[in-house]
Write a structure and sequence with these properties.
The chain is mainly alpha-helical and 123 residues long.
Length: 123
């Protein structure tokens, strides 16, 4: 085999077609729109579920406030306040009033404690 026969057997280099003509030069927008829609839906669900515990806690507090028997209402308020940290998933420091005996709590202090619970639900 001579050099001329080897060179005769070689083919020309095949170049691909112009890439601008074969493939579009723009991005497909639909994957980004779909990703944004899924993330938006997840965010909306998380925000709605984040406020759901507040709605149920406010409804429970309203039911407690409808109780006419003061000692029963006070024990229900204390049980509600004890579960508030777990519901809110953050520490809630109760005022010293919560650790007093029910018969030593006046109506004004009871109202102050109810206002404290309402403020904590708003946080």
């Amino acid at each position: 085999m001579t050099e001329d026969t080897v060179l005769a057997q070689l083919r020309g280099i095949h170049l691909p077609a112009d890439p601008g003509l074969v493939a579009p030069s723009t991005f497909a927008l639909w994957p980004f729109v779909l990703l944004a829609a899924v993330l938006g839906a997840i965010l909306v669900v998380r925000v709605w579920r984040g406020g759901q515990w507040r709605r149920t806690a406010r409804a429970e507090l309203a039911r407690i406030l409808d109780v006419d028997d003061q000692p029963t209402q006070w024990s229900m308020l204390l049980a509600f306040s004890a579960s508030l940290s777990e519901r809110a998933r953050r520490p809630v420091t109760l005022p010293p009033l919560a650790y007093r005996r029910p018969d030593t709590v006046s109506q004004g202090e009871r109202n102050e404690f109810i206002a404290f619970l309402s403020r904590e639900l708003g946080r």
